[in-house]
């Protein structure tokens, strides 16, 4: 079994959309326009490919995005710099094989050289104790709760400190930037003309 974690490509989008919308109640449905937004704007959008098949994906955004998710906006109101995991989906045939931990290790490596905090939420209605336990054992702590819309589910808002970030900031980000290594590079994606360079975590917004 050959596994590759790679940036999403445009020709993957139909498979990603189908995978998302058959994932069950714990994953909010997407339409093609919403998925296109992630393709064009998400800072992290990677798929797991196994023997040529899309086995899962993870989407994450940094602070400062124009994104309407109530949970993303909650973190924006409480923290100046973070990476927010919007969703992770694993195909049924590949669940319970450790792909979730592979993705979380990968997104942590992406986040810890850019921001001090990795964030996400888990649904409490319906509650999935396997998901809650997974996040707890991976170092996430609950920092709040909220209901998604008046009749939406209650969610637990989670955050994980990334202690390596302080070293990266002082050693590299404040002294010219990260080394030009492929694994440290931003993902290539379509960008709108008004896209602004990312600020250092902790800098004030203009």
Give a structural overview:
The protein has 206 residues and is of the alpha+beta class. It has a single domain, classed as Gcn5-related N-acetyltransferase (GNAT) (Aminopeptidase, 3-Layer(aba) Sandwich), CATH 3.40.630.30. The protein is 28% helix and 25% strand. It has helices at residues 13-20, 32-41, 70-78, 99-111, 129-137, 164-171, and strands spanning 3-7, 44-50, 53-62, 83-90, 117-123, 141-147, 154-161. The chain has a 7-stranded mixed sheet with strand order 1-2-3-4-5-7-6, sandwiched between helices. The radius of gyration is 17 Å and the shape is globular. The termini are far apart. It comes from Fulvimonas soli. Pfam families: Acetyltransf_1.
């Amino acid at each position: 079994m050959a596994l590759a974690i790679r940036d999403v490509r445009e020709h993957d989008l139909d498979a990603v959309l189908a995978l998302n919308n058959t994932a069950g109640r714990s994953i909010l449905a997407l339409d093609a326009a919403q998925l296109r937004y992630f393709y064009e704007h998400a800072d992290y959008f990677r798929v797991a490919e196994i023997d040529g098949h899309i086995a899962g994906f993870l989407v994450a955004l940094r602070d400062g995005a124009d994104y309407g998710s109530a949970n993303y906006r909650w973190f924006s109101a409480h923290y100046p710099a973070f990476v927010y995991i919007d969703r992770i989906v694993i195909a049924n045939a590949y669940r319970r094989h450790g792909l979730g931990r592979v993705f979380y290790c990968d997104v942590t490596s992406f986040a810890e050289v850019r921001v001090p905090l990795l964030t996400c939420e888990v649904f409490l209605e319906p509650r999935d104790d396997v998901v809650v336990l997974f996040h707890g054992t991976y170092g996430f702590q609950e920092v709040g709760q909220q209901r998604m819309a008046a009749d939406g589910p209650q969610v637990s808002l989670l955050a994980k400190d990334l202690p390596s970030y302080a070293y990266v900031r002082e050693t590299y980000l404040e002294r010219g930037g990260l080394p030009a290594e492929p694994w440290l590079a931003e993902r290539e994606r379509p960008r709108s003309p008004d896209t602004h360079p990312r600020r250092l975590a902790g800098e004030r917004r203009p």
